[in-house]
Amino acid sequence: MTSASRIILCIGMMTLSGLFGLTPAPIDTAHAEWYVAGYGGISAPQSLKNVAMDAYGLTQDRAQFSGAFDNPPSGSVTQSFHTSNINLKQSPLFGGKAGYFFADEGLRWLGVEIEAFTSTPTIKRQTLSTTHDVTFLPNSPDFTAFCTPGVTCQIQRRFNGTLALQENSLQLITLALNVVARYPGEVFQPYVGVGVGGFYFKGSDQFNGRQIVPGLNLQAGVKILVTEEWGFFVEGKYNRATLTNFDPGFGLSAEYSAFNAVAGLAFHF
Asked: Residues 157-175: pLDDT tens digits?
């Protein structure tokens, strides 16, 4: 029923009530409620945290402990290469969603939705502090300078330094499935949602790799219904995902997170 039809029906019922002293019964507005929406806004990614680049560290070991890479090797190397946080740029964010509220089932406050959105959290040009821990275990006791009688010979080293990064493009596409709870008001509808999804990262330049990882999608917002069908909404989102051995050159591993602010238009049917 359109808004105009509802208004005419209400006026007619009020007129009958005045003439015959009747109280009109409330109109049942429960119905299957699907919706689609489009939105845009800004993504403010936090710095990549707990950063490791073990593939890059392994290339440094070839110069420091070349014997471990001979054929046959003179020993074995275990190592870890960690850096300070990596700063990312803010970027525009665009997306769309489609969902369903369980009005027919008597749960107008509960719904599910699927959404997709994209952003470009470019890696800034910067200089990182690095810590490279290496343990070399020789195959023979010839390394007498590092051996103690009765104790396994090993060489342990820690190298502190810096690593210069150029600006690296990074694209993110997210596909998420959310559960949404709302206050089903006639005009104002605050809501919250929680979901999981696949986060597709694609990099170039120094970090030339691509990877799909699971991630978290949290959201909260308010929708303002202009008509029964159309509504305007503003929404805040929080995303989190973990990269592991992202690219072959550096083997980037890190924790990604971002706060996003969007606004959009929804159509209910």
From this structure: 899 999 999 999 999 999 9
- Alpha-carbon 5 to chain mean position: 44
The C-alpha atoms of residue 202 and residue 175 are separated, in whole angstroms, by 15
What pTM was estimated for this model as a whole?
Answer: 0.81
Length of the chain: 269
Listed in sequence order, the residues at least 6 apart from 16 whose beta carbon sits closer than 8 Å to its beta carbon are 22, 24
Is the bond leading into 72 cis (omega within 30 degrees of zero)?
A: yes
